[in-house]
Amino acid sequence: MVRYKATISYDGSGFVGFQRQSHGRTVQEELEKTLTKLNSGQAVTVHGAGRTDSGVHAYGQVVHFDLPQLRDLEKIRFGLDTQSPDDMAVLQVEQVADNFHARYHKHHKTYEFLVDIGRPKNPMLRHYATHFPYEIDVSLIELAIKDLVGTHDFTGFTASGTSVDNKVRTISQASVRLDKSRHLLIFTFTGNGFLYKQVRNMVGTLLKIGNARFPVGQVKEILKQKNRQLAGPTAAPNGLYLKEIIYED
Q1: Residue 226: inside a domain
Q2: What count of other Cβ atoms lies within 10 Å of the Cβ of residue 175?
Q3: How many domains are there within the chain?
Q4: For residue 57, what are the β-bridge partners?
Q5: CATH number of the domain enclosing 40
Q6: I need a surface site. Which of 143, 146, 180, 238 has the fewest CB within 10 A?
Q7: CA distance 109 to 79
Q8: CA 244 → CA 21, 43, 150, 224, distances in Å?
Q9: Taking the model in full, what pTM does it have?
Q10: Catalytic residue, candidates 53, 66, 81, 147
Q11: Domain of residue 180, CATH code
Q12: 213: Cβ–Cβ under 8 A, 6 or more apart, which residues?
């Protein structure tokens, strides 16, 4: 068997998430259908680097899969890209070592989160940015977001009931910028891993800080107390993008 790694992008609006499920359409299922066709009807299993939720988008999701023989990489990419649904694209395919695993091989992920702060909202962005219709002071967010950088226990920013025991993660970049022409706030987070709904909970908290409903020091307090009840609401998934995955070697 030959192992391949593919970088894909998709519009998450029409999917109930990346991972195969018993109900609804998923990215994994669509990829596996196409690969099975390309593999003469023999089933192919796809493994993804991240399990994006329903409505979440990706510019640079990474998957791996095995095929029984060595093939031309561009032919695999072109076949996957043209035979997959229109809300998916296959950007690159490369051969990797047999022990490579898209999820478990050490990597860093970058997520982007778009917030539409226009009033009224932009209906063209309803699937691609989360609307926040309240007054906001970006300078307050710029101060607070710095406290997320570093190695912390992010228990206070993950969904309650998550099954992961170790909630310590390292965030190497956390920033926000204002795109005035499009009335968008663009959050960017890079880290060695993110807990379930962590990015959406961080954004929900930062928006409340920007709206002066939380003090600037709230992020520090949440990290200290490890208490989800101190954080803001979970931001809607439609603004979240898995932007890039970089493997350590």
Answers
A1: yes
A2: 15
A3: 2
A4: 241
A5: 3.30.70.580
A6: 180
A7: 27
A8: 24, 28, 19, 29
A9: 0.94
A10: 53
A11: 3.30.70.660
A12: none
User: Is 53 tagged catalytic?
Assistant: yes
Domain membership of residue 166 as a residue range? 107-247
Q: Closest Cα to residue 3, out of 66, 87, 73, 80?
A: 66
DSSP string of 60-110, one letter each residue: EEEEEEEESS---HHHHHHHHHHHS-TTEEEEEEEEE-TT--TTTS-EEEE
Please, are residues 85 and 41 in contact by the beta-carbon 8 Å criterion? no
- Domain end (from 96, 128, 152): 96
CB of 168 within 8 A of CB of 194?
no
Residues 227 and 144 occupy one common structural domain: yes
Tens of pLDDT, residues 178-209? 999 999 999 999 999 999 999 999 999 999 99
Same domain, 123 and 89: no
Helix axes 73-83, 27-38, angle to 10 degrees: 120
Low-confidence ranges of the chain (pLDDT < 70): none
**HSE, side-chain direction, 13 A CA sphere, residue 213:** 13
Among 62, 68, 76, smallest CA distance to 28 is for 62
